[in-house]
Amino acid sequence: MALRGVPRSAHQLLKQQSAWKPSVASLSRCASTEAGPAVPDVETESGLMTPVVERKGISIMDPRKRASRREHELPHSRYRYHPPKYDRGPLHPIQPPPSSDPVARNFTPGPFNLPRLKQTYHSTIASDILTLTYQHKPPGTPEKPERIRFRTWGDETPYMENRPKRGPRGAEVLLPLEPDLNYHNIPALKAVHVAMYMPQAKKNPDHITVAKTIMQTISGVRPTVTHTRQSVAQWSVVKGDRTGVKVTMQGNQAYEFLDKVIHLVFPKIKEWKGVKGTTGDGAGNLAFGLEPQEMMHFPEVEANYSSYPQKMIPGCRIFVETTAKSDRHARLLFGAMGIPFYGKLVD
To answer: What ranges in the chain are assigned the alpha helix state H?
Structure first.
């Protein structure tokens, strides 16, 4: 029988005289197509002929009946994991899970992005600030007496005995005391407030439109239109006019905006000295401003700078709110982030 599909090695075995003799069944796979193989190589039925399972054919059991037939009850809540209710500090052996964990009590979906400046703060800046501000006190060192800031009432009548103390004389504002920095109160970024003021919007409302567009472009937050609180005769502004826009950024948006200002806007300003050292409100919040010609250094504005009326682009005032209790600690945080200061530094 002539075999076409048999390889050369099989031909050599068949030519040799041996006790093994191939049978018809063993050579049926190698026979020609005309001989007709005993075992088909291709399925006769298609996979599309599989019956479609419909919802009517599925039996759904009532969950109450299934629970009633269950022999063993599920473990009660006391056997399940519960995160600790209180955060006892980073050195405590029992730590609560992060807020991104669904088991956490303060579960918040995310984080969906991690700003570079925020990651640098947690990995480098926070530990550096804690190291720079460390002051060693040997055991037994007496505490410094606290400065008396409130005035006591007289003891003329018994009604003054449990009365709260009075503030200082005059219009002096009681600012928060500057505590020693430890791992509980390392200064961090809290929020960034950006505001634009255009008195020309009294005559031309298009200034408001341009300011809102630029503000939303550089911040990613829909701005709010502000109104004047007092009338200014020199600018022909009446109380209640729409003359500005403002926006507030918190969390990751604040870190991303400040990172953009520090590493993209400030280096492009010619002969920029830095932030003035006397800025601050005494409570750890610092502010600085940008001129109208400096707004083009934002990458979002620079990409479409020709789309904005050049004479209508306003400047802005950036107010950075931190968790620091004094301007000195806030400047320490800003300096670590890359913002220089010039001039006299006011504590």
So the answer is: 8-15, 63-69, 116-120, 126-132, 206-219, 252-260, 299-303, 327-337
Alpha carbon distance 63, 263 (integer Å): 59
Alpha carbon 56 to its chain centroid, in Å, reads: 48
Question: Where in the chain are the domains?
Answer: 84-112, 189-342
CB-based contacts of 132: which residues, under 8 Å, 6+ apart? Answer: 332
Task: Average the pLDDT over 206-219 and give the result.
Answer: 94
Q: Residue 318: CB partners within 8 Å, gap ≥ 6? A: 192, 193, 194, 261, 287, 288, 289, 290
- Nearest-angstrom CA–CA distance, 160 and 154: 7
Q: How confident is the model at residue 247 (pLDDT cuts 50, 70, 90)?
A: very high
For the question of whether the overall pTM of this predicted structure is more than 0.85, the answer is no
Dihedral-angle region of residue 229 (phi above 0 means left; psi in -120 to 50 means alpha; beta otherwise): alpha
User: How is domain 189-342 classified at the architecture level of CATH?
Assistant: 2-Layer Sandwich (3.30)
Neighbouring residues of 96: CB distance < 8 A, sequence distance ≥ 6: 83, 84, 87, 104, 105
